[in-house]
Amino acid sequence: MRSTLRRALSTALAALGVTGALVLAEPAPLAAHAAACAPSTGVTVVVDFGSLGGGVVTSCFAGDPATGLASLTGSGFTVTGTQRWGLAFVCRINGQPTAATEPCVNTPPASAYWSYWHATPGGAWTYSSLGASSYNPAIGTVEGWRFGSGQQPSITAP
Questions:
Q1: Running DSSP on this structure, what letter comes out for residue 96?
Q2: Contact, 30 vs 141, CB < 8 A?
Q3: CB atoms closer than 10 angstroms to residue 109
Q4: Percent of the chain with pLDDT over 90
Q5: How confident is the model at residue 101 (pLDDT cuts 50, 70, 90)?
Q6: What is the dihedral of CA 131, 136, 94, 122, to 10 degrees?
Q7: What is the Cα–Cα distance from 77 to 57, expressed in whole angstroms?
Q8: Does the pTM exceed 0.85?
Q9: Which of 10, 79, 87, 125 has the fewest CB atoms lying closer than 10 Å?
Q10: Is the separation of the CB atoms in 146 and 50 below 8 Å?
Protein backbone atom coordinates (compact mmCIF):
# COMPACT_ATOMS: atom_id res chain seq x y z
CA MET A 1 0.00 0.00 0.00
CA ARG A 2 2.79 2.37 0.93
CA SER A 3 4.66 1.70 -2.34
CA THR A 4 1.43 2.21 -4.32
CA LEU A 5 0.84 5.55 -2.62
CA ARG A 6 4.47 6.53 -3.17
CA ARG A 7 4.23 5.55 -6.88
CA ALA A 8 0.97 7.52 -7.33
CA LEU A 9 2.47 10.55 -5.62
CA SER A 10 5.62 10.28 -7.72
CA THR A 11 3.55 10.01 -10.92
CA ALA A 12 1.45 13.03 -9.95
CA LEU A 13 4.54 15.13 -9.18
CA ALA A 14 6.18 14.06 -12.43
CA ALA A 15 3.07 15.06 -14.38
CA LEU A 16 2.96 18.40 -12.60
CA GLY A 17 6.66 18.92 -13.36
CA VAL A 18 6.13 18.16 -17.06
CA THR A 19 3.16 20.53 -17.23
CA GLY A 20 5.16 23.27 -15.52
CA ALA A 21 8.06 22.69 -17.89
CA LEU A 22 5.77 23.00 -20.88
CA VAL A 23 4.44 26.30 -19.64
CA LEU A 24 7.87 27.68 -18.74
CA ALA A 25 9.68 26.32 -21.80
CA GLU A 26 7.44 27.64 -24.56
CA PRO A 27 9.92 28.37 -27.39
CA ALA A 28 8.53 31.75 -28.42
CA PRO A 29 5.64 34.00 -27.51
CA LEU A 30 2.52 33.44 -29.53
CA ALA A 31 1.89 35.97 -32.28
CA ALA A 32 -0.51 38.74 -31.36
CA HIS A 33 -3.84 38.58 -33.10
CA ALA A 34 -4.78 42.20 -33.48
CA ALA A 35 -8.19 42.92 -34.84
CA ALA A 36 -10.09 45.47 -36.85
CA CYS A 37 -11.59 48.43 -35.04
CA ALA A 38 -15.10 48.14 -33.67
CA PRO A 39 -17.53 50.25 -35.75
CA SER A 40 -17.06 54.01 -35.31
CA THR A 41 -14.11 53.68 -32.90
CA GLY A 42 -11.13 54.26 -35.16
CA VAL A 43 -9.37 53.35 -38.39
CA THR A 44 -8.53 49.74 -39.21
CA VAL A 45 -5.08 49.19 -40.70
CA VAL A 46 -4.22 46.16 -42.87
CA VAL A 47 -0.60 45.45 -43.82
CA ASP A 48 0.01 42.64 -46.32
CA PHE A 49 3.52 41.17 -45.96
CA GLY A 50 2.69 38.24 -48.29
CA SER A 51 5.27 38.91 -51.01
CA LEU A 52 7.92 39.28 -48.30
CA GLY A 53 7.20 35.85 -46.86
CA GLY A 54 4.85 37.02 -44.12
CA GLY A 55 1.12 37.14 -43.71
CA VAL A 56 -1.48 39.86 -43.37
CA VAL A 57 -1.56 41.84 -40.13
CA THR A 58 -4.66 43.78 -39.09
CA SER A 59 -4.62 46.39 -36.35
CA CYS A 60 -6.67 49.32 -35.08
CA PHE A 61 -5.90 52.97 -34.59
CA ALA A 62 -8.33 53.98 -31.86
CA GLY A 63 -9.64 57.46 -32.54
CA ASP A 64 -9.36 59.88 -35.44
CA PRO A 65 -5.85 60.00 -36.95
CA ALA A 66 -4.74 63.17 -38.70
CA THR A 67 -3.05 61.22 -41.51
CA GLY A 68 -2.73 57.75 -42.97
CA LEU A 69 0.83 57.70 -41.69
CA ALA A 70 -0.45 58.45 -38.17
CA SER A 71 -2.94 55.56 -38.43
CA LEU A 72 -0.15 53.21 -39.55
CA THR A 73 2.31 54.14 -36.81
CA GLY A 74 -0.37 54.68 -34.17
CA SER A 75 -1.75 51.17 -34.69
CA GLY A 76 1.60 49.63 -33.78
CA PHE A 77 3.61 49.43 -36.99
CA THR A 78 7.12 50.84 -37.30
CA VAL A 79 7.88 52.82 -40.45
CA THR A 80 11.09 53.80 -42.22
CA GLY A 81 11.10 56.44 -44.92
CA THR A 82 13.70 57.04 -47.59
CA GLN A 83 16.85 59.10 -47.03
CA ARG A 84 15.79 61.49 -49.78
CA TRP A 85 12.10 61.94 -48.91
CA GLY A 86 11.88 60.94 -45.25
CA LEU A 87 8.50 59.59 -44.15
CA ALA A 88 6.82 61.21 -47.16
CA PHE A 89 7.68 57.91 -48.88
CA VAL A 90 7.19 54.72 -46.84
CA CYS A 91 10.08 52.38 -47.60
CA ARG A 92 9.80 49.81 -44.78
CA ILE A 93 7.03 48.64 -42.49
CA ASN A 94 8.17 46.63 -39.47
CA GLY A 95 11.65 46.38 -41.00
CA GLN A 96 10.40 44.91 -44.28
CA PRO A 97 11.85 44.77 -46.84
CA THR A 98 15.24 44.42 -45.20
CA ALA A 99 18.09 46.85 -45.75
CA ALA A 100 19.89 44.15 -47.75
CA THR A 101 16.99 44.13 -50.22
CA GLU A 102 16.15 47.85 -50.25
CA PRO A 103 18.55 50.48 -48.89
CA CYS A 104 15.81 53.17 -48.73
CA VAL A 105 18.00 55.88 -50.22
CA ASN A 106 15.59 56.98 -52.94
CA THR A 107 12.16 55.78 -53.97
CA PRO A 108 12.11 52.00 -54.56
CA PRO A 109 11.34 50.65 -58.05
CA ALA A 110 7.73 50.37 -59.26
CA SER A 111 7.99 46.59 -58.91
CA ALA A 112 8.86 46.65 -55.20
CA TYR A 113 7.19 49.31 -53.04
CA TRP A 114 4.47 49.69 -50.39
CA SER A 115 1.24 50.57 -52.19
CA TYR A 116 -1.36 52.46 -50.16
CA TRP A 117 -5.12 51.73 -50.30
CA HIS A 118 -8.43 52.80 -48.74
CA ALA A 119 -11.73 50.98 -48.24
CA THR A 120 -14.86 50.81 -46.18
CA PRO A 121 -15.37 47.64 -44.13
CA GLY A 122 -16.26 44.84 -46.57
CA GLY A 123 -15.89 47.24 -49.52
CA ALA A 124 -13.57 47.37 -52.49
CA TRP A 125 -10.02 48.67 -52.13
CA THR A 126 -9.21 51.98 -53.85
CA TYR A 127 -5.63 52.96 -54.65
CA SER A 128 -4.71 56.15 -52.83
CA SER A 129 -4.19 59.22 -54.98
CA LEU A 130 -2.42 60.90 -52.04
CA GLY A 131 0.55 59.88 -49.94
CA ALA A 132 -0.06 58.62 -46.43
CA SER A 133 1.25 61.84 -44.88
CA SER A 134 -1.28 63.88 -46.91
CA TYR A 135 -4.39 61.70 -46.59
CA ASN A 136 -6.84 62.08 -43.69
CA PRO A 137 -8.71 58.78 -43.12
CA ALA A 138 -12.19 58.95 -41.62
CA ILE A 139 -13.17 57.01 -38.51
CA GLY A 140 -14.75 53.70 -39.52
CA THR A 141 -12.65 53.27 -42.68
CA VAL A 142 -9.85 50.84 -43.53
CA GLU A 143 -6.30 51.68 -44.61
CA GLY A 144 -4.39 49.04 -46.57
CA TRP A 145 -0.73 48.50 -47.41
CA ARG A 146 0.82 45.82 -49.61
CA PHE A 147 4.38 45.33 -50.74
CA GLY A 148 4.93 44.53 -54.41
CA SER A 149 4.14 46.18 -57.70
CA GLY A 150 0.95 47.99 -56.73
CA GLN A 151 -1.49 45.18 -55.95
CA GLN A 152 -4.27 45.72 -53.44
CA PRO A 153 -4.16 43.88 -50.10
CA SER A 154 -4.94 40.19 -50.51
CA ILE A 155 -7.87 40.18 -48.08
CA THR A 156 -11.25 41.87 -48.12
CA ALA A 157 -11.28 45.04 -46.06
CA PRO A 158 -12.36 43.93 -42.55
A1: B
A2: no
A3: 9
A4: 77
A5: very high
A6: -110
A7: 10
A8: no
A9: 10
A10: yes
